[in-house]
Specification:
Layout lengths: L3 E7 L5 H9 L3 E5 L6 E8 L5 E6 L11 H10 L10 E7 L3 H12 L5 E6 L1 H6 L2 E3 L1 H8 L3 E3 L8 H14 L12 H11 L7 H10 L8 H13 L4 H23 E3 L7 H9 L4 H20 L1 H21 L4 H18 L2 H17 L1 H14 L7 H7 L4 H7 L6 H10 L9 H11 L4 E2 L3 E2 H27 L20 H35 L5 H16 L3 H15 L1 H13 L6 H9 L6 H9 L9 H10 L12 H13 L4 H11 L3 H24 L1
Parallel strand pairs: 1-4, 1-5, 5-6, 6-8
Antiparallel strand pairs: 2-3, 3-4, 7-9, 10-11
Helix pairs in contact: 3-10, 5-10, 7-8, 12-15, 13-14, 14-22, 15-22, 17-18, 18-30, 19-21, 20-21, 20-28, 20-29, 21-29, 22-30, 23-24, 24-25, 25-26, 26-27, 29-31, 30-31
Length: 703
């Protein structure tokens, strides 16, 4: 028997991910559905000793009448029997505590004619709330096997597999009538089925409703369906409403009979907690308190493993330098490949901690409350409550933050979130802020409580947040929406996180970051190494010889000589030529060619700025220590003009520049991947670079 395909379907927040993890464990991977950037989670499960099946976890949807790209994925698959993801059976997951709302999609699924098993999740919570479910009534009404399951504990999973294997092997799918086709619908169905004999009546009806949104229908067929709907006066929205009302006329009496709720005079724990957590005053305070905890955790907990990774990469580099012969290949491995690898791995601790904490908030049910609380506010700035997740993630790294925007259904809100999220100061800006703040802001206490440098740090972060909201508002006026924006979601009950789900989610996110961002950073690092290692003709060789003579004349020791030679080599390389070439562009901001070089190299990653400045200013070996570089910057004098090369005005100008600039090629690459176009990364780069230039210009002349 060939491996079967099983679809996991259900409404959002119903616990499908938990069931998916119970079914597949570590035997899962993440890809994309064809033609879209929506995640496709695929895993393998054993139905019994002889039969294995592929399980596809489809995005949560409320019906087969989609309002978002996630929901369209479900429609595109189930309206097309030829789809590569079309299943042999469906596991439909419903919330036992709110059954009526979850049965609408099931009634539509039944009309597709695919063998289905109904899994009633959260049965333990339903029992605690006093619900009594008559499984036999539900089973008889929908003519599907019904199984009580618990995604947290795995209870009922074995029985669920048995039922799925049974419906697949018997290929039995009993039909039920939850609504009757109108005369207009019947006539349209007959004509549409002439175009494709493989679809059933309900799939033909879905074609009539959505033909212009179904990518698998060719243009000529779309034109024919359009003519059919016009001929029969097919009123799309009116017929959808009639269908939904008819289905609820079937569902509501059933749930009233099959679900009995014991009277309870006291509010549930979730209701009591929600009065505080979603309160208009206490709610935001709690949220920002948790947000502070998240940021504190990212920066404090991650510092030790990040230092360990840095030191390990450096140790490996020293070892390889000792055993590999001198030459261009060794330089490529050490300064290109190894440096790029370090640039990827060093952020893994922060990404891990960030998604661990976000997963805890999602698993516990809190994140849904945060989305609900901030939806009204975020709409004013062109985004939605779901954008909060991306904006929070942006504090660690814009790459996973941009990827997190996939959860936003509305195209306009998702696009605005992607375009503005990199304005949130990420962890890669911290080394840049650290050296610049330490140089320009005195280490003094204000009011005996606040450190002035700490306030400057906070000010840079707040500036990024404020401009993020302003940019969102502007894009809201520019971009046109593909559908009206509204928030429709359930607030799940509070519960203890399921640690297996948390671990799988975190590992998936970290793996995605390493694989997606890693490839780009590695390539960029190698390209920048080549540009910094080579120059036209014998430029670098001549610069090296001259620098060695000058170092000997000035009495430099071996370390100082190496640093001085390195700075002159960069100046003579292609990167140095580029830096000097763009110096006139940045001169109004107070930047000389040295800073211009640092701006070019930091396109690989913002934190490269510090290392580049250290090398150029001949403190290369102390590049990770702020104090020597700060001292060298303070004493650097232009030999021609006699003026200081680096001033407070220059430092403040650079701070503002790095708050706004898109100095991250990896983020641009991920934006391209998420939007399926180079148009949006280009727009993002242009507007952020413009903001950075104007802001830095103002800052330079203010100070």
């Amino acid at each position: 028997m060939n491996k079967q395909t099983i679809a996991l379907l259900g409404n959002p927040n119903v616990g499908k991910s938990s069931i998916f993890n119970q079914l597949t464990g570590l035997r899962q991977k993440v890809g994309n559905f064809p033609g879209v950037t929506v995640d496709k989670k695929i895993g393998t499960t054993s139905l019994d000793n002889d039969h294995k099946a592929t399980v596809i976890d489809f995005p949560g949807t409320y019906s087969l009448y989609p309002t978002s790209s996630d929901e369209r994925v479900v429609l595109n698959t189930f309206a097309n029997p030829s789809s590569e993801d079309y299943p042999d059976a469906i596991i439909y997951i419903a919330d036992s505590t709110n059954l009526e709302r979850h049965l609408l999609l099931l009634s539509q699924v039944k009309d597709l004619g695919i063998p289905t098993v109904l899994g009633l999740n959260m049965s333990d919570i339903a029992e605690k709330k006093g619900f009594e479910l008559d499984l036999k009534k539900i089973e008889n009404a929908f003519k599907v096997p019904v199984v009580k399951i618990n995604g947290r504990t795995g209870e009922g999973i074995v029985e669920l597999k048995e039922k799925v294997q049974h419906v697949i092997s018997t290929s039995s799918e009993s039909t039920i009538k939850t609504f009757n086709f109108s005369a207009v619908e019947q006539a349209s169905i007959i004509d549409i089925k002439k175009l494709n004999e493989n679809i059933n009546d309900y799939q033909a009806l879905l074609w009539a409703h959505h033909y212009d949104q179904l990518p698998f229908i060719d243009l000529s067929s779309k034109e024919e369906i359009k003519n059919i709907t016009e001929k029969h006066d097919f009123k799309d929205m009116r017929l959808q409403i009639d269908e939904t009302l008819q289905r609820y006329n079937f569902i509501t009496p059933l749930t009233q009979e099959a679900v009995k709720e014991k009277a309870s005079e006291e509010d549930s724990f979730s209701d009591k907690l929600d009065r505080i957590v979603t309160h208009k005053v206490f709610g935001p305070l709690i949220f920002f308190g948790l947000l502070m905890l998240v940021f504190q955790s990212i920066f404090s907990w991650a510092s030790a493993p990040m230092d360990f990774i840095d030191e390990s990469i450096a140790t490996i580099g020293e070892y390889l330098k000792g055993v590999m012969p001198e030459g261009w290949f060794t330089d490529l491995v050490l300064d290109g490949v190894l440096a790029g690898l370090g640039g990827v791995l060093v952020f893994v601790p922060q990404i891990t901690i960030l998604f661990f904490l976000i997963s805890l908030m999602e698993e516990s049910g809190y994140m849904s409350r945060a989305v609900y609380m901030f939806d009204r506010l975020m709409i004013k700035f062109g985004m939605s409550g779901r954008s909060i997740v991306s904006l929070i993630s942006g504090g660690a790294c814009a790459i996973p933050a941009v990827m997190a925007a996939r959860a936003i259904g509305n195209w306009k809100e998702r696009m605005i979130t992607i375009l503005v999220t990199p304005l949130i100061s990420c962890s890669a800006r911290i080394p840049v802020y650290a050296i610049l703040v330490a140089f320009a802001v005195p280490d003094e206490m204000v009011w005996g409580v606040f450190n002035l440098q700490g306030l400057a740090f906070m000010g840079l972060y707040l500036l990024g947040i404020v401009v993020t909201l302003i940019a969102g508002f502007i894009f809201k006026l520019i971009l046109k929406a593909d559908a009206p924006s509204f928030l429709a979601m359930e607030l799940p009950s509070y519960k203890m996180p399921h640690w297996k789900n948390v671990a799988l989610t975190v590992s998936e996110k970290v793996n995605t970051f390493v694989m997606e961002a890693g490839k780009v950073i590695m390539i960029v690092s190698i390209v920048l190494w080549a540009l910094a290692s080579y120059g036209p003709g014998d430029n670098i060789e001549e610069a090296t010889q001259l620098a060695e003579k000058e170092a000997e004349f000035k009495g430099f020791n071996q370390l100082e000589t190496e640093d001085y030679v390195a700075s002159k080599q960069i100046e003579a390389s292609y990167v140095g030529i580029i830096g000097k070439g763009i110096e006139p562009i940045f001169a109004p901001l107070g930047y000389d060619w040295k800073i211009s070089i640092a701006l070019v190299t930091s396109f690989a990653a913002r934190e490269v700025f510090v290392g580049t400045m250290a090398t150029i200013y001949s403190v290369g070996s102390a590049g990770d220590d702020i104090a020597p570089l700060r001292k060298r910057l303070a004493t650097a004098v232009d030999p021609v003009t006699g003026k200081h090369e680096f001033t407070k005005a220059t430092a403040f100008s650079l701070m503002i520049f790095y708050v706004f600039a898109m100095q991250c090629m990896s983020t641009l690459a991920v934006v391209k991947r998420e939007t399926k176009s180079w148009k949006w990364p280009v727009v993002q780069f242009i507007y952020m670079s413009g903001l950075a230039y104007v802001g830095a210009l103002i800052a330079y002349h203010m100070f």
